[in-house]
Amino acid sequence: MIEKRAMKTECMSDPVVEEILEKYNIPKWTKPYICEYIGGWERNPVTAIKHAVSFIETGRKKGEVTKSHVKLPNGVTFETPSITRLLGAFLYGEERLSQIYREWSAETAGYGHAQYPYHFGKLAEMDEGHARAIKNIIDGFGKREENPSEAMMGVFDYIGNLREWEERAVATNILLKHSYAFIGQMLYRAFYRTSSEFMRSLGKAFDDDEDSEWLVEEARRIVAEGRIPRDRLRELSEEVLSRVMASVNAEGAAAESHGIEKEIELLGKISIAHPLHNMNGMGASFDVDSEIKRICESSERFKAISTKI
Fold first, then answer.
1. How far apart are CA 265 and CA 244, in angstroms?
2. CA–CA separation, 208 vs 54, rounded Å?
3. Are 119 and 215 in contact (CB under 8 A)?
4. In what order do the strands lie in the sheet with 77-79?
5. What is the largest CA-CA distance in the chain?
């Protein structure tokens, strides 16, 4: 443990690590989490960070896609059931969000929230399009999508039960968008060099529209103007992000089988730190390290009973 702490401390002051972050355009706020990841390695820190980066930065190398597996440019191979399970999780998320947005769009909003139902209705249509795009990918593998984990279902059950318009906007357009979307972006970059033509068409299906941008900006205004009390914003963030973390941890068995459990753990921590850092930039004043510790501890409550692969 002492050696790991020493390695993390050394990493934090290592200019080479800083150069690697800049080279691959990785946000500087991720450095503590990357250094913690490096501290769990027995290898040279530079080797460790380059290994982690190899999942999203592949240079000229290309992977391969077959009916039985997907091989990333860095050599990691995923069997088809693991890929379809991952795609099934994203499909479930898009379908549930579309359903939730539909329900919210059918409600009557009072003064100050009159535009919300309209924009949520448009987002429902957008997410239906996202779901169709993911289904097309799954059909391409010739496999049916897997059932989501209990932890994943718990994320959207909680979101769907929110009743305040401001909380709905922040939960979906900051907390979810900046956590799951961060994971999605990393996976997109990882798979792009494997099948760039296919991934380009998928990317176009996920382009944001004006209604999405309106709610994103509205969520930013809500945080910046303190329209959700500070204590409630912290509580909301913890409740959503602890469930997100649990849903990422639920895939631990699959990650371990591919030898990338440390990378998934790193991705999970960065994904929950992402919205917290972003909200600080909007004026939320979170102690991010303390919040992440609380969220990681809280996520144990929502750990799925089963993680069937």
1. 12
2. 28
3. yes
4. 64-65, 69-71, 77-79
5. 59
By CB atoms closer than 10 A (0-12, 13-18, 19+), residue 282 is middle
The tokens for 177 are 């968008």
Residue 308 pLDDT greater than 50, yes or no: no
Q: How far apart are the first and last CA of the chain?
A: 32
Residue at token pair 């440390």: 262
Place of tokens 């379809």: 84
In terms of pLDDT, which residue wins out, 44 or 28? 28
Q: CA angle at residue 121 from 278 to 167, to 5 degrees? A: 40
C-alpha separations of 281 from 25, 145, 169, 183, 210 in Å: 19, 38, 17, 20, 23
pLDDT for residue 223 is more than 90: yes
Average pLDDT over residues 76-83: 76
In sequence order, the β-bridge partners of residue 69 are: 79
| pLDDT tens-digit series, residues 186-214 | 666 666 666 666 666 566 555 666 667 88
Distances in whole angstroms, Cα of residue 251 to Cα of each of 48, 86, 89, 103: 22, 9, 10, 29
Average pLDDT over residues 240-251: 88
Pair type for strands 64-65 and 69-71: antiparallel
Q: Which residues are CB-neighbours of 271 under 8 A, at least 6 positions away?
A: 179, 180, 182, 183, 244, 245, 248
Helix residue ranges, H only, 226-260: 230-249, 252-257
